[in-house]
Amino acid sequence: MLSLRKFFGGAIVVCSRGTVTWVGDVGLAAIVGCAIFLAAAAVSVAGETLHNGIVLPHQWPPDVRTLGSDPMPVPYLKHPPAVIPIDVGRQLFVDDFLIDSTTCARTFHKPTWHPASPVLTPNQVEGGWAIPFSDGVWYDPKDQLYKAWYYSNAGTSTRYAQSRDGIHWEKPALDIVPGTNIVMKHPLDKSGRSKRDSATVWLDHTTTTPEERFKMMTMNCDNRLNEHKIHVSADGIHWSEPRAIAGVTHDRSTFFHNPFRR
């Protein structure tokens, strides 16, 4: 049994065009086309309302200047939405946000290494470095290939590899640095060390601009003032000069596509 969040003392699920379906003996709920009504106090200072009904505070992201040992307050847990639309995508129930009570058991399974691991290893010319330092591993349906970008040569280069099955990888000879699989070289600081820290590659399935199908954000460290530069590419191999600079942050950073905000 699973009860969704309460509304006036009971769980109410309103289904305009969907049903609640139970699959298997662990009670996996697939809920389609429904809205869940919740009792909630209004957020006193309202900001943006998200696609799922969560109302952000006026100050968002929060202006955190110091870090303590206590968890950061989460406004939408303290003041959940009065209505949560759940027909916007899959609801995985990985936590209890939508659940008031349940007799179902949540089981966490331990992953195991594939016998072929590691499936991508550095060769001699890579200086012992073949690290997806964020970077990206994507399946590209256009070419029917798994594609990977990775940190190499102590951060002086970003390299590319591809695979038919995600297990057996090849490093093609490209034309950026002829005869290698390098797709981008990175500048050095005054001491001769690479300025590249983390990077992120994103395969954008929604873009209408072919030359921007791939996006890359690189983080360049310079005296702890870290700029994030945005590059675009049609094929993930030939990258543009920076189209934008995202500003100064610290440590590793990344980005993702939010399909609801587009």
Give the SSE string: EEEEEEEEEHEEEEEEEEEEE
Helix share bin: under 10%
**Secondary structural class:** mainly beta
What ranges have pLDDT less than 50 throughout 5 or more consecutive residues? Answer: 5-44
What's the mean pLDDT score? 79
Number-wise, the strands total 20
CATH structural fold name of the largest domain: Tachylectin-2, Chain A
CATH architecture of the largest domain: 5 Propeller
| Count of helix runs | 1
Looking at the structure, what is the overall shape?
Answer: globular
- At the first level of CATH, the class of the largest domain is Mainly Beta
Residues in β-strands, percent: 35-45%
Radius of gyration: 23 Å
This entry's quaternary arrangement is single chain
Biggest β-sheet description: 9 strands, mixed
